[in-house]
């Protein structure tokens, strides 16, 4: 009864609690200003690069929902992203290029795959969960590779971007940029609301002690399955956007290497932090772009850097920023 009463007591946030909204607000404002900066430089290149950052940030947010808040380390998460992209490509090849058709199909296909695989994956724990998600991810990868009518290993080129109610609203790079930004903001707000909700408290509680949550009467498996399906749908959304941004879909979108990159992004930013997922994605892709200008073996430089971050700063880049702020406040 005490727990029920506690749930009904309104929570008053202290003034300092609102500081947590400063960083995401700064990030989204910076994203919104990029097109204006692009007017004074290579606009097409800049918009393409930052659009890619935002698309992968959406996928990273969905993965961080599982890894950071549920301790469910998925090594096949890119499969959902690839399914969302292939939904766009396959439908477009059959003349269904409107987003009002392809987007719901992309979300539904990703959710269905997440539900079917999640039923099996969530019966396992630890390294077994990692390996079985990897197996399902590779199954999706090889399935896409065998789709000869849709390009097979070579992938499928889209002739044009998705229309919206028959209008070419996404034909402009700037329009696609702002649509992607709106999707990123919506996904961030949704994920933040989810993890702080009653559902999120149970989901996070299962991460700490699943046995205790089960003893309290919660069906942990069901909560985890719902979270897994939600994460799959969000990743499917990123796949839909990626297909439109590149006008191309390929089995490589589903590879285990891509899943590994998504994990690196959230580790780099700081696991269990939605802000960190965006910061880590931006850092990963921008560093990749910068280092690739020096050598094609940029991963040989980036790998040791990541190891140093994990060993000495477990909180990722956000952990470094918090440490610097504490030092500044402490004098």
UniProtKB/TrEMBL annotation:
Intracellular or extracellular location(s): Cell membrane
CDD domains hit by this protein: TM_PBP1_LivM_like
GO cellular component: plasma membrane
InterPro entries linked to this entry: ABC_transp_permease (IPR001851), LivM-like (IPR043428)
UniProt key word NAD: no
Coiled-coil regions listed in the entry: none
Topology within the bilayer: Multi-pass membrane protein
Keywords: Cell membrane, Membrane, Transmembrane, Transmembrane helix
Primary location group: membrane
GO molecular function, one term: branched-chain amino acid transmembrane transporter activity
The name this protein goes by in its record: Branched-chain amino acid ABC transporter permease
Source organism of the structure: Pseudorhodoplanes sinuspersici
């Amino acid at each position: 009864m005490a727990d029920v009463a506690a749930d009904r007591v309104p929570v008053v946030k202290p003034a300092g609690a609102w500081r947590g909204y400063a960083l995401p607000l700064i990030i989204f404002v910076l994203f919104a200003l990029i097109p204006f900066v692009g007017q004074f430089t290579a606009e097409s290149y800049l918009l393409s690069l930052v659009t890619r950052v935002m698309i992968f940030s959406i996928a990273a947010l969905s993965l961080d929902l599982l890894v950071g808040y549920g301790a469910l380390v998925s090594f096949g998460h890119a499969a959902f992203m690839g399914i969302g992209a292939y939904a766009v490509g396959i439908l477009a090849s059959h003349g269904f290029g409107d987003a009002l058709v392809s987007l719901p199909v992309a979300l539904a296909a990703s959710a269905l795959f997440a539900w079917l695989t999640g039923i099996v994956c969530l019966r396992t724990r630890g390294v077994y969960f990692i390996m079985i998600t990897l197996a399902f991810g590779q199954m999706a990868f090889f399935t896409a590779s065998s789709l000869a009518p849709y390009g097979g290993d070579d992938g499928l080129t889209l002739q044009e971007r998705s229309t919206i109610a028959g209008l070419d609203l996404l034909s402009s790079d700037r329009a696609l940029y702002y649509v992607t930004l709106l999707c990123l903001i919506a996904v961030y707000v949704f994920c933040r609301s989810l993890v702080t909700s009653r559902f999120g408290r149970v989901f996070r509680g299962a991460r700490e002690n699943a046995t205790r949550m089960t003893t309290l009467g919660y069906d942990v498996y069901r909560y985890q399955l719902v979270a897994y399906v939600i994460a799959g749908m969000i990743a499917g959304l990123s796949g839909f956007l990626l297909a439109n941004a590149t006008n191309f879909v390929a089995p490589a979108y589903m590879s285990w290497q891509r899943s590994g990159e998504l994990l690196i992004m959230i580790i780099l930013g700081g696991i269990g932090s939605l802000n960190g997922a965006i910061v880590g994605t931006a850092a990963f892709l921008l560093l990749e772009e910068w280092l690739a200008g020096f050598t094609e073996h940029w991963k040989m430089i980036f790998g040791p850097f990541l190891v140093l971050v994990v060993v000495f700063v477990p909180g990722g880049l956000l952990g470094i920023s918090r440490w610097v702020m504490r030092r500044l406040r402490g004098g």
